[in-house]
Amino acid sequence: MSFSSKPLILRLASFLLLLSIASAAHRPAALVAPVTKDPSTLQYITRLHQRTPLVSVDLAIDLGGRHLWVDCDSGYTSSTYRPTPCRSALCSLAGANSCSRCFSSSRPGCNNNTCGVFPENPFTSTSTSGELAEDVLALSSTDGSNPGALASDPSFLFSCAPAFLTKGLAAGASGIAGLGRTRVAPPSQLAAHFSFRRRFALCLPSTSRGTGVLFFGNSRYRLLPDIDASQILIYTPLLTNPVSTAGTSVSGEPSAEYFIGVKGIRVGEKAIALNKTLLEINRKTGIGGTKISTAVPYTALETSIYNALTAEFALALSHVKRVPAVAPFRLCFEEKGISPTRVGPSVPAIDLVLQRDDVYWRIFGANSMVEAKTGVLCLGFVDAGKSPRTAIVVGGLQLEDNLVTFDLAYSRVGFSSTLFFRRTTCSNFNFTSTA
Ligand SMILES: *[C@@H]1O[C@H](CO)[C@@H](O)[C@H](O)[C@H]1NC(C)=O
Ligand SMILES: *[C@@H]1O[C@H](CO)[C@@H](O)[C@H](O)[C@H]1NC(C)=O
Ligand SMILES: *[C@@H]1O[C@H](CO)[C@@H](O)[C@H](O)[C@H]1NC(C)=O
């Protein structure tokens, strides 16, 4: 072999390698990523693969976030990083039109005449400007039962944020996977690249020992022992809030968050009196309504709704000894007065009543009670104050061990209620790879 032919052979070898990756993962029906719960911040973290050569990146999940961003200040190296020029089609796809400059040496996140977007950290309510860019993103393909070969999108759009934006994220997380309703968030970008339906599913683990699962695409969602969670869903329409709920936005930009139509709340099948105006999205101001969020650990309710819920819940559990509250909760009980069941502590179910009285998201003890300290169980909802932007924010505890699907193509949200009834959990996806 002559010296000069070596690079050609190398190039041929890597070309063949690329070909084999592409054919093994040709048009996967769906993709899958693990989800863990960080014990100190209670954030949900997913792991994706990015750059060339590929590295794994841990990102906090922000269900309503507008795009994926990573910290590019802390050692981002990749031979395939490409900043997005301003005034380009990709820049308008991201809803942006500003042109960024950078007065330091050129590197990922710092280039001239690039498309500037606004990465946001919802846990600290901070946002800043960042450079829009493309690079390789890879996830495991799946048949819905196991992870298979890695499938990659060579030109995935994300933003490069400064290191300070990761302040407040779980240790090890280098950015945010924003899964919101935009053209550039992973659900739409991956669906466009792999030609699958714009649908994804989130199954959050309830402990930091388990591994939950995030699916993109339309497949079965199989959990051990042999439950196809895609078959047990109840659907409700996905609503659009015409006014952005993000930290920074341009006028006329709709919210990228997932709103559903809660019409009422029942405690132990008894409806509680609520101010219905709060439950509606005001089409002019964007105030009111109900959204689903992974940015809060517990469902947050506007004060009058919170007070009505806790009053009814306290009444229904009046036979159990109350104990002093443990912040941030206000209604706490002696644990020994409440017996355990398969679906958590035996307390009245809380129903979020949706489009009709017989369509409701039922929340059992496992998703309503928190052991706030030894021997003390508290109602795991918090008071969001008198005038929050969104009256009901369904948060982490209430989503755990429920499979929730977001179908952008059909504008609907599907939910399973607790998987404990099916004798499974979100930590039961078989992550043994078949690749
Ligand atoms: C951007 O342009 C300015 C002025 O033209 C220059 O000083 C700066 O070094 C450039 N930055 C990069 C990253 O090339
Ligand atoms: C219901 O809520 C709306 C919006 O906050 C408020 O303007 C109205 O006064 C409330 N109605 C009652 C009866 O409290
Ligand atoms: C998990 O998947 C692997 C690979 O398909 C299989 O061999 C194994 O039996 C599965 N585990 C269980 C508990 O079903």
Automatic annotation (TrEMBL):
Q: Which domain of life is it from?
A: Eukaryota
Q: Which GO terms describe its biological process?
A: proteolysis
Please report the stretch or stretches of sequence annotated as the Peptidase A1 domain: 44-416
One Pfam annotation reads TAXi_C
Check the UniProt entry and state the signal peptide residues, or none.
1-24
The Gene Ontology terms for molecular function here are: aspartic-type endopeptidase activity
A GO CC term? extracellular region
Keyword list, A-Z: Secreted, Signal
Query: What is the first-listed, main subcellular location in coarse terms?
Result: secreted
Where in the cell does this protein reside?
A: Secreted, Extracellular space
Protein family according to the UniProt entry: Belongs to the peptidase A1 family.
The protein in question is named: Basic 7S globulin
* Species of the source: Apostasia shenzhenica
